[in-house]
Design brief:
single chain; about 120 residues; alpha+beta; Alpha-Beta Plaits; 6-stranded antiparallel beta sheet; 6 strands; about 25% helix; about 35% strand
């Protein structure tokens, strides 16, 4: 099962309800939320469809086009890739998208998680 989990933050002031509404539309039927905590915008979304449905690309394109100087990450595990024993990471820094491989878990640790 394809899995993704994303967390993003921004110090910019914007309409969190509008963003949350659009995120829920883009990520249906999976959870998505957008709220302010101590004056900082917090965005989270996740999903576990049977395969990549393009949700992540749609969500990130939408959010980065808002020019909110977002920062955060999205963790992805794709069982159909050659890296199925690892998470891939999309790092967001001031609305720039950077693709990375997870360096935090060894292959043995990851196997224990998925077995």
């Amino acid at each position: 099962m394809y899995q993704y989990h994303g967390w993003l933050s921004s110090l910019e002031d914007t309409n969190s309800q509008s963003i949350e509404s659009k995120l829920k539309e883009l990520n249906r039927p999976y959870p998505a939320s957008c709220t302010y905590v101590n004056g900082e915008l917090h965005i989270s979304f996740s999903g576990s469809p049977n395969r990549d449905l393009g949700n992540i690309e749609s969500i990130l394109n939408y959010l980065c086009d808002l020019n909110l100087k977002l920062f955060g990450c999205v963790y992805i595990n794709d069982p159909n890739s050659e890296r199925h024993l690892h998470f891939d990471i999309i790092k967001i820094v001031e609305d720039r998208i950077i693709y990375m491989e997870d360096q935090n878990f060894t292959e043995e640790e990851t196997k224990e998680i998925f077995e």
